[in-house]
Design goal:
Layout (H helix, E strand, L loop, with lengths): L1 E9 L5 E10 L4 E5 L6 H9 L6 E6 L2 E2 L8 H5 L2 E4 L11 H12 L3 H14 L15 H13 L5 E5 L7 H16 L3 E5 L3 H5 L4 E6 L2 E7 L6
Helix pairs in contact: 3-4, 3-5, 4-5
The protein binds adenosine-5'-diphosphate (2 copies).
Keywords: ATP-binding, Cell cycle, Cell division, Cell membrane, Membrane, Nucleotide-binding
Pfam family, one: ABC_tran
Subunit structure: Homodimer. Forms a membrane-associated complex with FtsX.
Length: about 230
């Protein structure tokens, strides 16, 4: 699903954010990406989204080398990727339904199709009865679930999350993690960037650890490599 082949990223100011990173993420696997602040987690996600380009090496998404992608092709890449943010970036000037529908509207789906898909996504995250509400009326955990519904509404094969439980208490974090596991179970490749070690400790899964731009650990969570 994703492959990094000797990927390095040096920012224009000379900062080496990633150094010769190699890993593969298969479909249907949930993987944590961890490391201290500044270790390179966001940069790694940005390379997958083509918000940044690598200085060296190659990133593959579904077998396609992103180095060969033009700026014009970036929207097609992003349709394959659902992105969940810490602050979920919901729009408070419209309903839950319209927030989740947004990616489909942008992609030009037909109206009838949009209704069906939005309700399927809201059903998955347990919010079918809240579609007409403004997200401002929902709890933090519910808002994050709306963000997840929006990320998966066009059924992307890849789901990226950047500190998805950053603002949530442990019980709500566990709920969100259960949802991510559900997506992995149906074949989605899920990559969760977090420095919340308690979240990581509660689940059995693969863990990638970055330190100063190097991948210093890739394996099960018996040892965080830190
Ligand atoms: P993390 O997400 O793990 O906190 P980042 O990928 O944001 O790490 O940052 C990795 C390193 O690259 C840090 O030292 C950061 O200061 C630096 N960095 C990030 N973005 C830029 C940028 N646009 N220009 C220069 N340096 C950057
Ligand atoms: P080799 O074993 O000959 O080095 P690779 O494992 O590098 O071959 O893979 C060959 C090609 O298959 C890559 O260039 C890439 O296009 C594709 N590929 C392999 N694994 C993946 C993956 N996990 N995700 C996406 N593309 C992949």
């Amino acid at each position: 699903m994703i492959k990094f082949d000797r990927v390095s990223k040096r920012y224009p100011n000379g900062k080496d954010a990633l150094r010769r990173i190699n890993f593969e993420l298969p479909a249907g696997q949930l993987t944590f990406l961890t490391g201290h602040s500044g270790a390179g987690k966001s940069t790694l996600l940005k390379l997958i989204m083509m918000i940044e380009r690598p200085t060296q090496g190659q990133v593959f998404v579904e077998g396609q080398n992103l180095n060969g992608f033009s700026t014009r092709q970036v929207p097609f890449l992003r349709r394959k990727i659902g992105m969940v943010h810490q602050n979920h970036q919901l729009l408070f000037d419209r309903s839950v339904f319209d927030n989740v529908a947004l990616p489909l509207v942008i992609a030009g789906f037909a109206r009838a199709d949009i209704g069906k898909r939005v309700r399927a996504a809201l059903d998955k995250v347990g919010l079918l009865n809240k579609e007409k509400l403004n997200p401002i009326m929902l709890s933090g955990g519910e808002q994050q679930r709306v963000g997840i519904a929006r990320a998966v509404v066009n059924k992307p094969p890849l789901l990226l999350a950047d500190e998805p439980t950053g603002n949530l208490d442990p019980a709500l974090s566990a709920e969100i993690m259960d949802l991510f596991h559900d997506f992995a179970r149906v074949g989605v490749a899920v990559l969760i960037a977090t420095h919340d070690l308690s979240l990581i400790a509660r689940h059995r899964h693969r863990l990638l650890t970055l330190r100063e731009g190097r991948l210093i650990h890739d394996g099960e969570d018996d040892d965080h490599g830190a």
